[in-house]
């Protein structure tokens, strides 16, 4: 029987996963979405968001808004796919690096059904957001 892991190690695994997701997403986007990523990284989308929040006509900033939407959709999709590893293996790469794995309430090794149920519960908000954006 394994010991239940507390909040601290799981938070550290989340931070490691977030770094890996951000780093790999940046690399991939710089190759497949070079112009969009450059526009996003230069901060041009901030002007578009400011114009929207002030009730101004955002049509002049539509390219920046589209850039922001493409980048945020890509990062969300990339994150969900990355975390799907946890659904298959019972641990995200960050958890694997720290030696953590999803178990049952009794501390036993869980099966794939439990991994996917927890993945769906943990990521349900993001999954619904992606679904809403794609329909």
List keywords for this structure.
single chain; mainly alpha; elongated
Break the fold down into its secondary structure elements and pairings:
Layout: H1 7-32, H2 34-41, H3 44-53, H4 62-89, H5 93-98, H6 112-134
Helix pairs in contact: 1-2, 1-4, 2-4, 3-4, 4-6
Question: Would you kindly provide a written description of the structure presented here, covering whatever features stand out?
Answer:
Helix 1 (7-32) crosses helix 2 (34-41), helix 2 (34-41) crosses helix 4 and helix 3 (44-53) crosses helix 4. The chain is mainly alpha-helical and 135 residues long. The termini are far apart. It contains 6 helices and no strands. The model has no long low-confidence stretch (mean pLDDT 80). The protein is 75% helix and 0% strand.
Q: Work out the radius of gyration.
A: 19 Å
- Unreliable sequence segments: none
Distance between the termini: 45 Å
Helix content: over 70%
Would you list the SSEs in sequence order as H and E? Answer: HHHHHH
DSSP strand count: 0
Strand content: under 5%
What is the compact description of this entry?
This protein has 135 residues and is mostly helical. 75% of the residues lie in helices and 0% in strands.
């Amino acid at each position: 029987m394994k010991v239940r892991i507390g909040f601290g190690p799981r938070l550290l695994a989340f931070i490691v996963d977030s770094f890996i997701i951000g780093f790999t997403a940046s690399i991939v986007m710089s190759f497949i979405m070079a112009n969009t990523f450059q526009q996003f990284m230069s901060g041009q989308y901030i002007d578009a968001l400011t114009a929207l929040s002030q009730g101004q006509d955002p049509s002049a900033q539509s390219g920046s808004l589209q850039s922001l939407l493409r980048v945020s959709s890509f990062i969300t999709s990339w994150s969900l796919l990355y975390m799907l590893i946890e659904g298959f293996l019972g641990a995200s790469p960050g958890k694997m690096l720290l030696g953590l794995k999803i178990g049952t309430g009794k501390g036993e090794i869980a099966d794939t059904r439990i991994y996917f149920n927890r993945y769906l519960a943990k990521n349900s908000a993001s999954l619904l957001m992606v679904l809403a954006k794609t329909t």
